[in-house]
Amino acid sequence: MLMLGFAGFLGLLKILLMALAAFGLFDAAFRREDAFRAADKQNKVFWLIILALALVVSYLFSILSFLPIIGVIASIVYIVDVRPALKQVSGGNGWGRRRGSSSDGPYGPYNGGR
């Protein structure tokens, strides 16, 4: 009974780690290439390869082995370090959201009373 619960916990942990790598991969795929260079991080292809390998390794290997731990570290580094730097450089979340100008107020553009 205890081993069955432990196996279920490891299965949920494996799904969580795969979701973390998939989120990083999906996010990196929609970022602009020049944002990676402007943020002084590795290029986009590098992060796509690293995060894809992290996703594949977390799917293929047991969570108790060494390779998925490296994939988790790579995913966390992308999400905690690279992603905020890319958001700061590109000025948004990168998902095609409309960005207003610096003169926009809460109800639309400010035109100086004209």
Question: Could you describe the 3D structure shown?
Answer:
This protein is mainly alpha-helical and 114 residues long. It contains four helices and two strands. It has a two-stranded antiparallel sheet with strand order 1-2. Helix 1 packs antiparallel against helix 3 (44-60), helix 1 (2-29) runs parallel beside helix 4 and helix 3 (44-60) packs antiparallel against helix 4. The longest helix has 28 residues, at 2-29. 21% of the residues are buried.
Architecture blueprint of SSEs:
Blueprint: H1 2-29, H2 33-38, H3 44-60, H4 66-90, E1 104-105, E2 108-109
Helix pairs in contact: 1-3, 1-4, 3-4
Over the alpha carbons, how many angstroms does the gyration radius reach? 19 Å
Low-confidence segments, given as residue ranges, are: none
What is the overall pLDDT average? 83
What spatial form do the alpha-carbon principal axes imply?
Answer: elongated
**Through-space gap between termini:** 74 Å
Which structural class best describes the helix and strand composition?
Answer: mainly alpha
Largest sheet: number of strands, sense, barrel closure = 2 strands, antiparallel
Count of DSSP-assigned helices? 4
Name the strands of the widest sheet in spatial order. Answer: 1-2
What's the total count of β strands? Answer: 2
- How much β-strand is present in the residues? under 5%
Helix and strand succession? HHHHEE
Into which percent range does the helicity of residues fall? 55-70%
